[in-house]
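This section describes the prediction task in plain terms. A model, or a person checking by hand, is given the sequence of a single protein chain and must write out its three-dimensional structure as a string of tokens. No templates, partner chains or ligands are provided. The sample shown here is typical of the held-out split.
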Amino acid sequence: MSDVFDATEAFFDALASIHWGWLGLGVLCHLGRIVCRSRAWRNVISAAYPDREVAWRAVFGGYCAGIGANALLPGRGGDLLRLYIVKHRVDGSTYPTLASTMLADGIFDLFAATSILIWALSAGVLPGGDVLPDLPAVDWLWVFKNPTQSLVIAGFVLAIALIVGGFFYGRITDFWKRVRQGLQILSDPLQYLRRVAAWDAADWTLRLTAVFFYLHAFGLPATVYNVFAYQVAGSLSTALPLTPAGIGTEQALLVFVFQGVAPASQILAFSVGVKLVTITVNVTLGVVAVALMLGSLRWRQRVQADAAGRA
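The expected answer:
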């Protein structure tokens, strides 16, 4: 945690040298990618419920509420909030189906992130096994340090899942029917490419363009290599976000992948600056979305009351 405080201090020391015009362009790209992503998710939901009205504004509001909560909560807790909001805006929708629509929408992400990760591994961007144990603040490092214990835990969880599945076979069969419903868009590849993948590709284009502008804003070389290196570090830090927005892990990885590009203090100022800006934007959007969609900022009590009512 001390590394995060040091990085934050470096950011405030560098405030005077920030190019705010470039930073503003990066924020605009960030807002644009949120629009693109919510359009893609709306189209996946619409394919799952072709006989229902799926308004984009409702999906956009749920998506913004989710990313706002994810900026403050570890473990992607905001995804539950966006599912809750959208479920109450699409008549007859269910949580298993809506959750599987998120999986369908994430297929392009998996392809793009894997492609960049393969590039990073082949280019030697990422730290090797001899370096990882020495990197501070990498919150998923325990898995790599303790592979045997990790496999035992994974096996135990799998065994419990199989036992539970045997007891509730009938309900699970119905559950998987609803999951397949959420993946309906994948049954028509052309529709998926036109209505989902195209929007997701625009999302990735905007997020990489935003990184380009952020690098300029903090006086770092805005090269293609640096743009992709930053994206790799950001993707890995949020793959298993045990801290809100993956903060801490991203700073540790960026100091490594950007070594030799600029002093560590400048890299930390850049990393924390971008993180603070995106968190501020996401939280602001989330607060407005929750207030408009739920009529109250106390969304946890609303979700708990709804769950109690169903019980």
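For orientation: The mean pLDDT is 78.
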